[in-house]
Amino acid sequence: MKKNEVNEILKRIKSNYQDFVIDDYKTNEWNKELKDYDFEDVMKKVEEHMRSEEFGKYPPKLYFLTKYLKTTAQKNTQTNFKLQCSICGEYIPEKEYDNHYSRCMDVSYIDHILKTYFDKKVTKDSWQENLNLSQEQFDVKYMEFLDRVYNKLPKEEQELINKIINPPKMKFDLGDDENV
After folding, report:
1. 123, 118, 107: which is closest to 149 by C-alpha?
2. Fewer CB atoms near the end CB (10 Å): N or C, the chain?
3. What pLDDT is recorded for position 15?
């Protein structure tokens, strides 16, 4: 990142946080830290920070803007690592692993429910088909599956699930003392 881009980031922060002070020392410190990162990546983190309900009311800290970001050099280094999924055993490119693992967990849960309640199991073809669906398609299919499972449950289990999802309002008997 160039120094003028660092200045633009500082101005963006200043325009949203009036108490944020820009001086030569801060500009030099931020430039030292940000010089190895891409302007677009850091600006995206600034925007995420400003939209954050928890932290958005405070000016961003330099460290948190670069946390989890890859430097330009790291981004330009081509890595072709594959990680083995501990659920299905497939080797997955590192960039796709988190999404794959999350989906595999969901399909594994479906398999568990099918075995537990229906004495069935997910076939290898069906497993692969579920892994290849878009997230939106999978979510629709998953919700339909959960609805079918819910409808097959005994009434007592349905009532328990309903209490967990929609807990009854708690009432407290504070006695006759109105000062409590």
Report:
1. 118
2. C
3. 94
Contact, 159 vs 166, CB < 8 A? no
Overall average pLDDT of the 54-71 stretch: 91
Q: How far is CA 122 from CA 44, 85, 106, 111, 129, in A?
A: 41, 17, 12, 5, 10
H-only helix segments in the chain: 3-16, 24-34, 39-51, 62-66, 72-76, 97-118, 124-132, 135-152, 155-165
Domains of the chain: 3-76 (1.10.8), 94-165 (no CATH)
146 alpha carbon, distance to own chain's centre = 22
Confidence of residue 176 (pLDDT cuts 50, 70, 90): low
Residue 177 pLDDT level (bands cut at 50, 70, 90): low
